[in-house]
């Protein structure tokens, strides 16, 4: 009888211990609730080449303003913050939001490529996707058209550095730009953003580098990324390709 009571006490203690344990997802969700975050936050950075049919570059910003509003109403999750920098021939886009919002952006890029809709862009490449970003770098989403000197457009980017080093350097520049803007007073923020090419040219990714990255086969297109993302994980072991199947354990 005493042994049975002891076992019951141990079982209850183990049950209480198991119920009090939290897994990693629960810990992250609890932290998000403390920070008033609706979901996990992710960051996407990609580059694209503007279409020759795009007469007014502000149409690109208007396109994403409409899309963000539609996606926000559909997913009811984290809103989008970030920066869209429009160069004379290219643009770089950093977005902070939920995974659903970021995947919608990538699918939108893929759809424009598959339907040959060249009113806005002609090609795009993904630089990086960062998961579970602790905090937002930008307070809102905005875009700016950079008035860069035409002489820079004729330069070709020459480097011996691998893409594995160039892509993080571009990301670092965007993050430094976000940190710089976060320190600006609200009363002068608009004037600063309107003259980024004059005030902080060293924080802007060179357009010839954007062109170089777009022609790199090491970076993934939206279509290739989605093919891997949507494909179920189905690994085939080498042992499964051999017949007869090798015996891992001796059979009696």
The helix count comes to: 9
The helix-and-strand class reads alpha+beta
Largest sheet properties: 5 strands, mixed
Strand content: 15-25%
pLDDT average, as an integer? 81
N-C termini distance: 42 Å
In helices, the fraction of residues equals: 40-55%
- Would you list the SSEs in sequence order as H and E? HHEHEEHEEHHHHH
Quick summary:
The protein has helices spanning 2-20, 24-34, 58-75, 99-114, 163-182, 186-194, 196-199, 207-214, 222-230; strands spanning 42-50, 81-86, 90-97, 121-130, 141-145.
Describe the overall structure.
The protein has 252 residues and is α+β, with helices and mostly antiparallel strands. It contains 9 helices and 5 strands, in the order H-H-E-H-E-E-H-E-E-H-H-H-H-H. Strand 2 (81-86) and strand 3 (90-97) form a beta hairpin. The protein is globular, with a radius of gyration of 25 Å. The mean pLDDT is 81.
């Amino acid at each position: 009888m005493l042994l049975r009571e002891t076992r019951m006490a141990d079982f209850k203690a183990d049950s209480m211990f198991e119920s009090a344990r939290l897994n990693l997802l629960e810990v992250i969700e609890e932290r998000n609730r403390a920070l008033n975050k609706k979901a996990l936050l992710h960051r996407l950075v990609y580059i694209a080449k503007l279409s020759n049919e795009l007469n007014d570059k502000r149409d690109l910003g208007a396109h994403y303003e409409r899309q963000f509003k539609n996606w926000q109403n559909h997913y009811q999750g984290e809103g989008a913050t970030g920066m869209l920098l429009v160069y004379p021939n290219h643009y770089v886009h950093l977005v902070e939001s939920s995974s659903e919002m970021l995947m919608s952006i990538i699918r939108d890029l893929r759809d424009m490529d598959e339907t040959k809709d060249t009113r806005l862009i002609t090609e795009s490449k993904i630089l990086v996707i960062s998961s579970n970003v602790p905090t937002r770098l930008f307070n809102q989403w905005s875009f700016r058209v950079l008035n860069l000197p035409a002489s820079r457009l004729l330069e070709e980017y020459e480097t011996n550095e691998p893409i594995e080093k160039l892509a993080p350097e571009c990301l670092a520049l965007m993050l430094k730009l976000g940190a710089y803007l976060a320190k600006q007073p609200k009363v002068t923020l608009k004037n600063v953003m309107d003259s980024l090419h004059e005030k902080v040219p060293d924080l802007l990714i060179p357009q010839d580098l954007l062109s170089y990255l777009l022609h790199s086969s090491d970076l993934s297109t939206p279509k290739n990324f989605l093919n891997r993302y949507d494909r179920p994980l189905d690994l085939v072991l080498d042992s499964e390709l051999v017949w007869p199947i090798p015996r891992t354990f001796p059979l009696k």
